[in-house]
């Protein structure tokens, strides 16, 4: 693996860094307090091609490889994880999955809109009764002539109230377990689909997270994406790449925490000297720096495997597991460096810790990542 960035990769990273410094970082604290990112950011992200990375240009995408995608995702995560998550879901979980599994009509209909930021996507897998055990979901889609009629409830759906389309997973037929699950592209203005914003989140407060309720939602059969019964494989393939994106966002959080801690340690004086001169403070900073490098390298390795067409799922679980735990550790260390000032939201590190915390929970908890890695190594499923 070549660890030097190409000119294109370095340029897209610079573009993302400049964009985040100008359009995201100055507003992140206010969006967090208001529990609302300014939605106009989505069109701006689309205009720069950040919502079309790795999507083929013929469908409105901006091309690029997965390392470029990770570099942009890291920069967004460094600025505001709420904004990073909007992109990771609309592009990473929805558009990229439509590009991989959609038929020609679905790709032509949704991809140009999603990549331009004219439409937003959300990913509807989790339900009130099934989180880690997603293959046992209860939402049902019943064939009725040329339509499917869908009933069920989806929980914790990122972009839920903003989205124009939900990539929805529902049970078709009577096959139990994950083999009976199918994927659908459901426009969110379809009658019978209602959405409720979930308020009071610990972190990612700027993001629209919602509960979706589907009551006799009727969609034409062409809303089915991929073969009937293939939905769980589609969801898992989306999440494998999604974990790379979460890992990259976590590298951004960890880097932001490190940068803030180094800056503050140089400025803050106690006992007549900058706190940076104390060995125990340097230990906090040094541990963060090792975490940042290790998390970034694990993430880049996934991108490299994806771009070379190699198997990447286990590497993605390792990167997501390590980077998410590292982001929490780094944000927590940064808060320690800031002392009491880290505990109030005039300073950025408290938000980094709150935002980091969910990364060990969604797209598969840390325990689930360990079970995936353990299964790959032993050949035995412990689920
Ligand atoms: P549970 O599955 O009930 O787990 C509870 C605890 O039990 C965890 O510690 C877990 O690790 C542990 N556990 C469960 N099974 C095992 C096992 N076999 N072995 C060991 N430990 C186990 N979902 C979507 O579909 N789309 C989204 O866009 C989305 N966005 C989200 C945004 C936020 C802010 C949050 C909080 C969640 C989001 N989710 C989304 C849902 C998320 O993926 C789930 O919360 C996650 O998969 C965990 O499921 P759960 O919350 O039901 O926890």
Notes on the structure:
This protein is an alpha+beta fold and 383 residues long. It folds into three domains: 7-120, Butyryl-Coa Dehydrogenase, subunit A, domain 1, CATH 1.10.540.10; 123-228, Butyryl-CoA Dehydrogenase, subunit A, domain 2; 232-378, Butyryl-CoA Dehydrogenase, subunit A, domain 3. It is built from ten helices and ten strands. It has helices at 7-34, 41-47, 66-79, 81-101, 104-116, 231-267, 279-307, 313-338, 349-357, 366-378, and strands spanning 121-124, 140-144, 147-158, 165-172, 181-187, 193-197, 209-220, 224-225, 269-270, 273-274. α1 packs parallel to α3 (66-79), α4 runs antiparallel to α6 and α6 packs antiparallel against α9 (349-357). Bound molecules: flavin-adenine dinucleotide (FAD). Flavin-adenine dinucleotide binds at residues 89, 123-126, 131-132, 156-158, 201, 204, 209, 358, 361-363, 365, 367-368, 371, 383. Residues 89, 123-126, 131-132, 156-158, 201, 204, 209, 358, 361-363, 365, 367-368, 371, 383 line the site of flavin-adenine dinucleotide.
